[in-house]
Amino acid sequence: MQNELLLEVAQQFGSPVYVYDAEKIISQYQRLTNAFAKVEKLRINYAVKALSNISVLKLLKQEGSCLDTVSIQEVQLGLKAGFEPKNIIFTPNGVSLEEIEEVAALGVQINIDNLSILEQFGHKHPNIPVCIRINPHVMAGGNANISVGHIDSKFGISVHQLPLLLRIVENTKMRINGIHMHTGSDILDIEVFLYAAEILFDTALKFKNLEFLDFGSGFKVPYKPDDIETNIEELGEKLTERFNEFQKQYGKKLTLAFEPGKYLVSEAGYFLTKVNVVKQTTSTVFAGVDSGFNHLIRPMFYNSYHHIENISNPEGKPRFYSVVGYICETDTFATNRRISEIKEGDILSFKNAGAYCFSMASNYNSRFKPAEVMIYKGEIHLIRERETMDDILRNQIEIKL
Fold it and tell me: Looking at 66, 131, 328, 357, which residue is catalytic?
């Protein structure tokens, strides 16, 4: 996205502000579907948790996407955005049976990842079709917090518990219409993904009336200039060939499903902040901005990298800065980063700010959550207003003292 357009957004709506490039979201969606063009029945379930603004959901619906949700609130957002219940899958972790039943009553596809809830649900609702989330015990992902398929993960039903799982299904006579796995995020090794896929194929053969196989997601996007990423075209070619072979072995046509979140929206996002202060200490030059981990927690939480550019002075002499926030504890976005010379008042642009950025924002330090803007067909659209003090106080109740 052109710096001039980002600066126009900052001038029009202030900072900090999130900006999303609709064209990039669309191109990522089309790249993924094109990679699997030889799959007869392909379903893309966008992971709402990555970025849940209703305008983003509507944009993806327009492209033909379905939804992957993890809470009843995300389901309700999807319905509000116009998705049909049959085009939403509910893949929670550790939620109550009551929440699952409430979602099932809406007609949404249920995906269960533990034996206790599976047995309870099967006894009460044997006629409601259920997908089962398998833990393949394959370690994948770029960070321990986003690797979810390993043996110590809280996610999924262990493949080693398959005999007990089958006994529950037989005893309850419940309908299993899908098998699901998700190994983790930032997957680069396609062979590891394909190895986990073989475990899913072997598991699927134990169930006779499946309609779909859901392979999760976790495809890596580039975070730095010249960074590596998942070769989605190579994965598409190899997995398509193997999936089409498996369908013949299974004896019926199945839907191949994915649930990308970061892959679709990460690169589309930019987070704009204003430099409040340039502070030199005995060893470091700090650029302190008008935001903090209350708005963008990923660098502190995941040690994630966000490329930072000074879009107010893109051709300036490069210097080294530690970019920090205004939260009153350690609050570091980047350490010793090479950035064009920064002056107070400059606008810094954080890249890859589309996924798990605004959606993880908070009101810590009683700060307002920022505005969100979408660039659609070259035009600037405000899609969420910046919060005000009324939003901070809205649900608080003052007692008489």
Answer: 328
- Three-class SS state of 278: strand
- Look at domain 269-382 and name its CATH class: mainly beta
Whether 14 has a binding-site annotation, put simply, is no
| Those residues with Cβ within 8 angstroms of residue 190's Cβ, 6 or more apart along the chain or in another chain | 230, 231, 234, 235, 238
Can you give the residue ranges of every domain in the chain? 36-264, 269-382
Q: Which fold has domain 36-264?
A: TIM Barrel (3.20.20)
- Is 193 exposed, middle or buried (CB count within 10 Å of its CB: 0-12, 13-18, 19+)? buried
Q: What is the DSSP string of 165-214?
A: HHHHHHHHT--EEEEE---BSSB--HHHHHHHHHHHHHHHTT-SS--EEE
328 counts as catalytic: yes
Ligand-binding site membership of 218 (annotated): yes
Cα separations in angstroms, 15 against 163, 180, 298, 309, 369: 55, 41, 19, 15, 11
Confirm if 176 and 129 have CB atoms less than 8 A apart: yes
Find the Cα–Cα–Cα–Cα dihedral 378, 384, 388, 392, rounded to 10°: -150
Over the stretch 135-165, which tens digit does the pLDDT of each residue have? Answer: 988 854 444 444 444 456 788 999 999 999 9
Amino acid at 26: I
Is the pTM of the predicted complex or chain greater than 0.90? yes
298 in a known ligand binding site: yes
Q: What is the pLDDT of residues 213-256, one digit of tens each?
A: 999 988 999 999 889 999 999 999 999 999 999 999 999 999 99
